[in-house]
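User: Can you model how S-adenosyl-L-homocysteine sits in this protein?
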Amino acid sequence: MVKLTLKRGKEESLLRRHPWIFSGAIHSADGTPEEGDVVEVFTASGDFIARGHCGIGSIAVRVLTFDREEPVDGAFWERRIGAAYGVRRALGLTDSTDTTCYRLVHGEGDDLPGLVIDVYGTTAVVQAHSVGMYLAREEIAEALRRVYGGEKLTAVYDKSSGTVPPKSGVEAVDGYLWRSMPSDAAAEVVSTAGFVLEGGNRFRANWEDGQKTGFFIDQRDNRALVGRYARGRRVLNTFCYTGGFSVYAVQGGAVAVDSVDSSEKAVRLCAENMALAEPSIPHREVTADALAFVREMPREAYDLVILDPPAFAKHHKVLGNALQGYKRLNAAALAKMPRGGILFTFSCSQAVSREQFRTAVFSAAALAGRRVRILHQLTQPADHPVNIYHPEGEYLKGLVLYVE
Ligand code: SAH
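Assistant: Here's the modeled complex, given as structure tokens:
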């Protein structure tokens, strides 16, 4: 195993258990590690400090363990995935009858940097965000089978083609790493045409064609809150994707729901999920640019508006533009709200801090000339935990505003 030695003093963040080592912190290596190899890291004085996956980007090592006595072997994967499972069990997610999809592994938040695993019914969908995790996918699938046992897991699907770093040259192909023999019952639960439940609502989850791992699980708690505010309101759900917020609005007693997304495929998925919700109220699914839609819609057309755009800032270099984007979008929506209207507004950009997002929304309120109170400050749900030593893991920020 290649040994890397840090520059003097560069162990400080690691002593605080931050799980990333940047390339600038490395002094030397006793060999030439390949991207994805497990490497060992030593301080300038020769003390072991970490073992992790080697990368070629600015993050040179993603730490898997700070324990010299913990090798990265089959037992390691089983222990880590077992610990993640224990947390979801404590949250009531592994045996819930009204929520059958949840995040099992949330990267650094579960001490597995570079790995995301979502569970849909009895299928686990694995996404590797690093070459190291991609190379370990078979061991990960094996550990999943051991942790879940026979009945609770019938398939493991690898969906890493869009997440493995493109510069690595690794050509990931999506597909099943494992599936149980297709008895009729198993085939049905494995089938991508199956439904999952979230808060008792039915959703079509499609991990083979959907964005990310098929469904945005991270808005579960916030959708439930929309449900609580929906009664008697006309709801607009922009950037609707699979229509999660729209379905909860129906369930919560909205009097009309319009859903907007620029992707035709998303609008189709949303329409399918709305059909499953069997709404007895008027609803429309519209393919349009959300900002243009909001700018062109009549004033006071909706009493509850949801803005959940994709990450405007994927990295710090474009932060300024992203903040402008949030300001423009929120100002356009606020300007159209009736008195007593409710705005749910989100940012999922990791590069945008909670403070910065709030400031952008504050500027938007000032620009639109509206009085606004913050009713709730929202974040990601507990199955997307934040490693306390890696605060960057807290990416989802939301505000619920009461507009006067
Ligand atoms: N609110 C969704 C997740 C939103 S993901 C949920 O609860 O699951 C972001 C969505 O924004 C994607 O579906 C994408 O197609 C859509 N999108 C991206 N740019 C857009 C634009 N300019 N106008 C409307 N939708 C857009």
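A couple of observations from the model: The mean pLDDT is 94. The CA atoms of residues 308 and 346 lie 5 Å apart.
User: Helpful, thanks.
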